[in-house]
Prior knowledge:
mainly alpha
Amino acid sequence: MKLRAELIALPPRQQARRLAAVAASLVIQIKHTEPHAPEAEAALAAIHTWGDGGVLTGRYISDLVYSDEERGTLRRLSEAAGKPSEGAWNALTTAVMYVAWLVYQETGEPMPGDVNEVGEDILDFLDEQLAQLG
C-alpha cells in the first residue's frame, strides 16, 4: 500500500520522523474527545525522540503500548471501545508498535514475540486504519 511503499524506502529513523507526523495528527484527534491523554503524548514524544536521533530502547517504546503497570496506548484503546477516539488510539498503537520493531532491530535487543511479529506488513494495516479515519 501507499504508506508502506513510502516508508520502507527510507532509513529507519526517517521512517520514524514520518510516522511522528502521522502520530501527531492522531494525538490531535484523540485530544478532541479525550483532553487528558498522557499515553498518546508519551508515544508521540518517543517517536519524535527516536526519529530525531535520540537513544531509546525497544523495551521503552514497547512499554508505551503495554507495560507491567498496564499503562499505555493498548489500555487506552480498550477503554475507548465504541468511542470516537477508538480508531485514533488503534492507529497510534499500530504506529508505536512499528517504531518499537525498528528500534529493536537497530539496538539488537532480544525482541519480544509480539513485537517480532510486527514487520513491514503492519504498515498496510496502519494505512487502512488511517483511511478509515479519513
